[in-house]
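Our collaborator T.R. sent over the components below with a one-line note: 'Predict the complex.' Nothing else. No constraints on interfaces, no templates requested, no preferences about which chain binds where. So this is a plain run: every listed entity goes in together, and whatever single assembly comes back becomes the starting point for the next discussion.
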Amino acid sequence: MSGVHLQPLADPASHVPSVGRTIPHDSAVGHVTGAAAYIADLPRRADELVVGFVPSAVASGRIRSIDLGAARGVAGVVDLITATDLPAARHFGPIFADEPILADDAVLYVGQPVVVIAAETQAALDEARRLVRIEIEPMEPILTIEQAMQRGRFIGPARRIARGDAAAAIAAAPHRLAGVFHSLGQEHLYLESQAALAYPGEEEQIVVHSSTQGPTETQHVVAAALGVGMHQVVCICKRMGGGFGGKETQGSLPAMMAALVARRTGRAARIVYRREDDMASTGKRHAYRTAWEVGFDDDGRILGYVVEFHSDGGAAADLSTSIMERSMLHVDNAYWLEHVEIRGRVCFTNHAPATAFRGFGGPQGMAATESVIQEIAIHLRQQGRPVRPLDVQRRNLYGLSDRNVTPYGQVVDRNHVAEIVESLAARCEFERRLSEIEAANDRDPLVLRGIAMMPVKFGISFTAKHLNQGNALVNVYTDGTIQVSTGGTEMGQGLTTKIRQLVADAFGVPTGWVLLMPTSTEKNCNTSPTAASAGTDLNGAAALDACGAIKARMAAWAAARLADPASGLVASPDHVGFAGGWVYDLRRPDRRMAFGELCAGARLDRVDLGARGYFATPGVDFDRETGKGTPFFYYTQGAAAAEVRIDRFTGDLTVPRADILIDIGRSINPGVDRGQVIGGFIQGMGWVTGECLVYDEKGVLLSNSPTTYKIPAASDVPVDFTCEFFPNDDNVGNVARSKAVGEPPLMHAICVWTAVKHALSGVSLAAARRLCLPATGEEILRALSSTAGPSASGAGWGHSATMRGWSAAE
Ligand code: MTE
Ligand code: HPA
Ligand code: MOS
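Returned assembly:
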């Protein structure tokens, strides 16, 4: 424990709570020095094997033969595994077990693992990979949402959430618009690729170190793949080098591959995906096709709204139906929709199974509605009405005491969105800049400008009720130091740092006395993935529950020793306080003992200083059959405004200014949360601008490395970029009155896209209407040039239609 001072402070009154203060991320130094270990950094185990796989090169087809002869002959190759070798489960999946562990008779997407290879060295593995011969009889793949719709290929049932009579309301409305909006997928590009290390133990046990957001899910699929009990599998995750949803379920495959090799060979086995394999083989954010119809009045008030989503689910269900559900629950964003009908269906395609990605379908739902709002404003302006997008947004925001029920029946209480929007609009001088921008657009032949506001209301809780629980193990040692283990995983978001602060404050000790231990299914069972932004809510509350149990025992023990009957101070556990590394009598702070002294003494008196805590979110429920319920514990709210500049000749986009105002309640760690907000916003900016997944006509991902897939660089960050927290104390039910922060900021960035749409409306309303998401330079140029003449327009569409598979008819 060198470097940790175990001395209490001068007195309890010197204690400053840690919660609410910026302390460094507990791996901040390790992230920079390299001391923070990822799966690839774990020390090599004796006899360890290198594991890799041979992916399908074909999107859809029947496997005629697999020839492993030549690969087997490579010196150093130890094992080759195909589907026929699987000892137990052949399929896996978090909701439906429909995804083949290894391709059996058919291949379903380019990149799908067909053969697992284990070798003594990377060189032997690479050589064997080259020599495996897989003969595939190709079949016509389904590569677009439209093709899946035409062929009726869906995953799961069609879902519907509705209120009122949307069709009638639209028919009766003074204005009507309809269209189809497309948003593309997104690659997670976590810095650590998918990885796992497995080694066998006694009695058919296996230990798997996995880069996973969901150790319990990994434990479950590994047990099923090996045909053993879950008690024989321990899954450990110290940290991930980013997950962003891409490791909520998709850590499963590498974990199973490593575990299968470990079981068959009796040796340790490690797999670390190469970047190209990771990008080609793993699922992404879902691309969506949204058909919509809206009816509205002269002021832009929405009277009726019909939305139909089709998502590209890829070749297995994964979390797609749950993600679609969240899209449908976020069509309303922050707006009151009296008559609304929302339909959603997941399409089967021959792409890698699409999966969770920050926002979990929310961004797709909200972007579609924001696009519609822009179109309402454009339309009204075409009619000569002086209505701007912000006016339309304002007029449709949920009310504070009326017009405040979501389409699924949950009341939007503690609603601050309107206040946040007004506060941000004033702070960033939104309306003055809007006028200047529109005036500048009229005279500037080179640069086109746009500006937009994005209100955000994001529902916090898993929509699957049973996932809203967490458990924690807290061990207090006799020197007063504390180890905490929860089911939550650390992926850079600061979960462990925040729980450290919560626990340190609970015992009134410095944060240095508390350590968060690696997540392991051995210590915390049946946990939910760290997702839905609820990591701190669930695991922090569970840790505090454990702390409460231990403190009660400590207080009972300490009360008698702190009391001073001579001076009339009777022993009372209710009057035992914990602060500054002291345990003291709240009535007489001079009557105290060091926390470590208490721990040692209590242990001698056989007081249990460890506890398991538990938390289940109260009051959440949602019935997906009826589309009604209260799925969310509360809403994280906020707004952002962004200004864009577009080179009219190249389509090149820059974001000179962005402002964020977000309500994350009482922040547990403002520095960490600021990192979440800024990082999430920039990641969202990537989704809506530069990031473009390009497949060839055979379903091969062409943008399969950071050289061909462009995420935002430091130079893309707005020069003028502000981020503030909206002061709010009202989230009383949640841990330390905080609010979840992980995903919401991504959706704030949708204003960057709507700002592009706004900019284009300065040139041509038709161009603006045609904009798809992401607004890449190419996409902007297409929208701009399609107004220039038929040939340019034709070229633009032709290009995009092949690259993205969008139907030119739209
Ligand atoms: N931040 C970092 N640095 N790395 C990540 O992988 N994932 C995001 C968000 N912030 C992520 C991140 C996603 S998708 C979620 S759901 C939350 O963190 C999960 O963590 P939390 O629930 O503890 O906020
Ligand atoms: N959000 C994020 N991840 C999830 C959810 C959710 O609502 N449900 C299952 N995994
Ligand atoms: Mo986050 S997409 O819920 O892992």
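Summary for T.R.: The first helix runs from residue 28 to 33.
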